[in-house]
Amino acid sequence: MIDLHTHVLAGVDDGAATIAESLEMLADCVRSGVQAVAATPHVRDDYPTTAAVMEHGVATLRREAEAESIRLEILTGGEISLDCLSTTPTAELRRFGLGGSSRYLLVEFPYYGWPLNLADQLAALRSSGFRAVLAHPERNDEVQAAPARLEPLVESGVLIQLTAASIAGSLGRRCQATALQLLELDLAHLVASDIHGPGTRAGLMAAIEQLSDQPLAQWLMKDVPLAIVLDEAVPPPPPPPRRRRVLWRRR
Q1: Who's near 118: CB < 8 A, 6+ residues apart?
Q2: Tens of pLDDT along 194-218?
Q3: Domains of the chain by residue range
Q4: Alpha carbon 234 to its chain's center
Q5: End-to-end CA distance of the chain
Q6: What does the alpha-carbon distance between residue 128 and residue 183 come to, in Å, rounded to a whole number?
Q7: What count of other Cβ atoms lies within 10 Å of the Cβ of residue 164?
Q8: CB contact set of 121 (below 8 Å; sequence gap of 6+)
Q9: How would residue 240 be classed by pLDDT, with cut points 50, 70 and 90?
Q10: pLDDT tens, 145-204?
């Protein structure tokens, strides 16, 4: 599995506070079957992370993980706020490419409200050669009220990333119900942990345990993330008959 949304870099945002915490998070990922993670620190007003800081943090973490015999690949990336899209130079955004890709960019979706100029911002990003991956929209109150509102964005080429803890139910019933509905509506493309600390959030395995459709789980947590890392087109999802069986285990 490949986890393309994590806050494993120490001391740059609200994620890992120390290298020791970073290494503990990486070890947890390995134990759950993750083979690669993207370090995606926040890039926003309260955490104005630069590409140089991110790249230095990834290089340091790679050395520390190797010294501790933690066997997984650590990739570059960033979680860019909508407000920073227009103020960050294109060359800098390119360095934040998700998983080291040159065109996929992880964009932070707000938890409250629907940005009035969202479509225009994403269109501008697309015109600059990027393909947006919207992070955790199932946690937004407006999306929870009307999940199909994301459909025009997806039709324009935007990808949707769900949080594993949402699918697992540990972020509440509304997040879980919205995440599952987005899957049923073909409006989700990958699942990531968005981990911020050791043991603070359910990982990818918890999401797999909640999905009855294993081909879909592989598509969400391996096939699509791998295509992003390789800078390739996203593969088509599994056949619809199987995907209709996305259910909560407790049902």
Answers
A1: 82, 153
A2: 999 998 776 898 898 898 888 999 9
A3: 2-243
A4: 15
A5: 26
A6: 29
A7: 28
A8: 82, 85, 86, 115
A9: low
A10: 999 999 999 999 999 999 999 999 999 999 999 999 999 999 999 999 999 999 877 689
b/e code 220-233 from CB counts within 10 Å (16+ = b): bbebbbbbbbeeee
Q: Element (H or E) spanning 236, and its range?
A: none
Region 129-144 average pLDDT: 98
Element housing 151 (H / E)? helix 151-155
For domain 2-243, give the fold. TIM Barrel (3.20.20)
**Closest C-alpha to 186, from 205, 160, 209, 206:** 160
pLDDT at 248 over 50: no
Contact call for residues 79 and 194 (beta carbons, < 8 A): no
Residue 74 Ramachandran class (φ > 0 left, ψ -120 to 50 alpha, else beta) = beta
Reference 125, options 80, 78, 182; nearest CA is 80
Position 135 scores a pLDDT of 98
The model's pTM is 0.94
